[in-house]
Automatic annotation (TrEMBL):
Pfam families: HTH_20. SUPFAM superfamilies: Winged helix' DNA-binding domain. CDD domains: HTH_ARSR (cd00090). This is ArsR family transcriptional regulator. PANTHER family: ARSENICAL RESISTANCE OPERON REPRESSOR ARSR-RELATED (PTHR43132).
Length: 126
């Protein structure tokens, strides 16, 4: 694998999506996107995700590694924020895409359920 500076953009994008490829990380990003000033304390993220502290820490480390979030330590508290406003846009676009896809699937299911029984299972009535 090439260093990031030499890798083609599609490879860098794929690595970004690998970094996002966990439901807990998506939930963390959604919480940050919805938070005031898109910033949240670790204690808030722990309470909202229900993750163990060690698991949350691992997910946040992955998001930092991929430069999706940044952190600031103030005394004992650590707060996180989205590294770029485009991350919130990416989440919104993904939501729209998925809702549209689910709507299409639901419509196909509805139409399939309206078919007469003889059209199902190769003509055998169920």
């Amino acid at each position: 694998m090439l260093p990031s500076a030499q890798a083609p953009l599609y490879e860098i994008k794929a690595n970004l999506f690998k970094g996002l490829a966990h439901p807990a990380r998506i939930r963390i990003l959604e919480l940050l996107a919805a938070a005031p000033q898109e910033t949240a304390a670790v204690s808030y993220l722990l309470a909202e995700t229900g993750l163990e502290a060690s698991h949350l820490s691992q997910h946040l480390a992955t998001l930092r590694k991929h430069k999706v979030v940044t952190s600031v330590r103030t005394a004992n508290a650590v707060t996180y924020r989205l590294a770029h406003p485009g991350i919130a846009q990416l989440l919104a676009i993904a939501r729209t895409f998925l809702l549209d896809t689910l709507a299409d699937s639901n419509e196909q299911l509805r139409l399939a359920q309206q078919l007469p029984a003889e059209h199902l299972a190769g003509g055998a009535a169920l």
